[in-house]
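RECORD TYPE: inverse folding
INPUT: C-alpha cells
STRUCTURE:
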C-alpha cells in the first residue's frame, strides 16, 4: 500500500464498503436507466401520447443529468458523497412515482425526465467512480474503476428482465413499482458508497500533497488552463455523440435495411454484455499503459469499425459482430477519463472535474441523437450522420493520443506529506 493511500486514512473495511456500495448502486441506477426504452410502447398506448412525447422525457433526463453533474460533483467534493447518493436514490424513487401517476406528457417530463435525470447525477458513474478512486491505492485504482464501471452494464440484465416480465404479466405501472423496489436496494448501497467520506475530507483538509484548498472558481481556472484536460473533455463530447447515435438510431437503420426489429434489441443487448467485459479490460490496461493512448485508440477504433459496418450490407451476423466490438469500446472510456483526472489534478476535486467532462459527454449525446435525426429527415438516410461521426471521431482520437497528461504545476510543486 502506497504512502499517499495510507495518508488518506482508509481502512480495509472502508475500502470494501465503498467499492461494494458503489458497484451495487451503479448496478441498480444504470440498469434502470438503460431499460426505460421497454416502456415506450406500453406508456404511449396507455396514456394516448406520442412516441416523441416519451422520448422528450428521456432527452430531458439526459440533459438534466449532464447539466447538473458538475454542481453535484462540486458539492460531493466539499461535503462528501454520502448525502448526495442517498438523496439521489430517494429522488430516483420519487421520479418513478411521479411517472406512475402520469396522465399526460407533462408528468413524464417532470418525473422520468427532470427528477430521474437529477437522481442519475447523484447515483451514476461520476460519483460512484470518484468515491471508488479515493478508496483504493494508485496501483489498483484503474482496475477498480474498470470493475465499478462494468457494474453499470450488469444492471441491465437485472432491470430489463424484471421490467419486461412485469409489463407482460401485469402492466407498466407495476413494472415501475418493481423499479422503485430496486431504488430501495440503492439506498443502503448509497450509504456504503460514502463510507470513506470522513477519511477523504480529513485528507483533503490536512494533506499537503495537493496543495492548499481551492475555491470552485480556482478549480475551473486550473482545469481550463490545462490544455490536455480540455482536449480530453472535447473528445468525451465526441464519445457521447458516437455512442448515442448507435444506441438511438441503430434499430431504425436496421429496419430501413429490411432487418427484423428484434435484431436491434439483440444488438443493444450484445453491446451491454460486451461493455461489461470492455470496462474491466480497459480499466486493467489503464493501470499498465498511458491512459490517453488508450482513449485515443478507442475513439479511432470505434470510427474505423463504424466505417466498415456501414459500408457492408447490414445482416444479423455483421450487426451482432459490430455490436460486440462496440460493446468492448463502449463505457470503458469512463475509468480512463476518471483515472486521467486523478493523475493530472489529484483526488480532491475529482467529482467536480469528472462532472464537467461528463457534461461535455452528455452535450455530445444530445446533439448526436437530435442531429442524426435532423440529417435523416433532410436526406432520408444516415449516410452523412455516420460520416460526420467518423471524421470527428478520428480527429479527436488523434488529438487524444498527443494530449498533455502531465500533472498540473500545483501537483508537481506540492510538498509531500
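DESIGNED SEQUENCE:
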Amino acid at each position: 500500500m502506497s504512502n499517499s493511500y495510507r495518508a488518506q486514512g482508509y481502512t480495509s473495511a472502508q475500502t470494501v464498503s465503498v467499492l461494494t456500495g458503489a458497484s451495487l448502486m451503479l448496478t441498480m441506477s444504470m440498469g434502470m436507466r438503460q431499460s426505460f426504452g421497454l416502456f415506450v410502447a406500453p406508456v404511449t398506448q396507455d396514456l394516448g401520447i406520442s412516441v416523441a412525447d416519451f422520448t422528450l422525457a428521456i432527452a430531458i433526463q439526459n440533459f438534466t443529468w449532464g447539466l447538473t453533474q458538475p454542481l453535484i460533483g462540486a458539492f460531493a467534493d466539499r461535503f462528501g458523497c454520502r448525502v448526495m447518493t442517498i438523496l439521489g436514490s430517494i429522488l430516483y424513487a420519487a421520479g418513478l412515482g411521479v411517472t406512475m401517476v402520469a396522465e399526460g406528457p407533462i408528468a413524464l417530463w417532470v418525473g422520468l425526465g427532470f427528477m430521474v435525470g437529477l437522481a442519475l447525477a447523484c447515483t451514476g458513474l461520476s460519483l460512484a467512480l470518484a468515491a471508488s478512486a479515493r478508496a483504493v491505492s494508485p496501483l489498483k485504482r484503474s482496475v477498480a474503476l474498470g470493475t465499478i464501471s462494468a457494474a453499470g452494464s450488469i444492471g441491465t440484465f437485472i432491470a430489463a428482465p424484471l421490467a419486461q416480465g412485469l409489463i407482460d404479466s401485469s402492466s407498466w405501472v407495476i413494472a415501475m413499482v418493481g423499479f422503485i423496489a430496486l431504488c430501495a436496494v440503492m439506498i443502503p448501497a448509497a450509504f456504503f458508497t460514502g463510507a470513506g467520506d470522513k477519511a477523504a475530507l480529513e485528507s483533503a483538509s490536512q494533506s499537503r500533497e495537493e496543495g492548499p484548498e481551492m475555491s470552485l472558481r480556482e478549480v475551473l481556472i486550473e482545469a481550463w488552463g490545462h490544455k490536455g484536460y480540455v482536449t480530453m473533455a472535447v473528445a468525451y463530447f465526441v464519445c457521447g455523440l458516437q455512442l448515442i447515435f448507435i444506441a438511438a438510431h441503430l434499430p431504425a437503420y436496421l429496419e430501413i435495411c429490411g432487418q427484423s426489429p428484434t435484431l436491434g434489441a439483440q444488438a443493444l443487448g450484445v453491446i451491454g454484455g460486451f461493455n461489461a467485459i470492455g470496462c474491466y479490460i480497459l480499466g486493467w490496461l489503464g493501470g499498465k499503459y498511458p491512459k490517453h493512448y488508450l482513449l485515443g485508440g478507442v475513439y479511432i477504433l470505434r470510427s474505423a469499425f463504424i466505417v466498415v459496418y456501414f459500408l457492408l450490407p447490414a445482416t444479423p451476423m455483421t450487426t451482432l459482430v459490430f455490436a460486440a466490438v462496440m460493446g468492448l469500446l463502449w463505457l470503458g472510456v469512463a475509468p480512463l477519463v476518471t483515472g486521467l483526472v486523478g493523475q493530472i489534478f489529484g483526488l480532491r476535486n475529482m467529482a467536480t472535474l469528472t462532472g464537467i467532462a461528463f457534461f461535455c459527454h452528455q452535450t455530445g449525446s444530445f446533439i448526436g441523437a437530435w442531429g442524426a435525426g435532423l440529417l435523416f429527415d433532410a436526406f432520408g438516410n444516415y449516410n452523412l450522420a455516420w460520416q460526420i461521426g467518423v471524421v470527428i471521431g478520428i480527429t479527436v482520437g488523434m488529438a487524444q493520443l498527443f494530449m498533455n497528461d502531465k500533472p498540473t504545476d500545483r501537483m508537481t510543486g506540492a510538498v509531500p506529506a
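NOTES: The chain has two domains: 10-194, 214-406.
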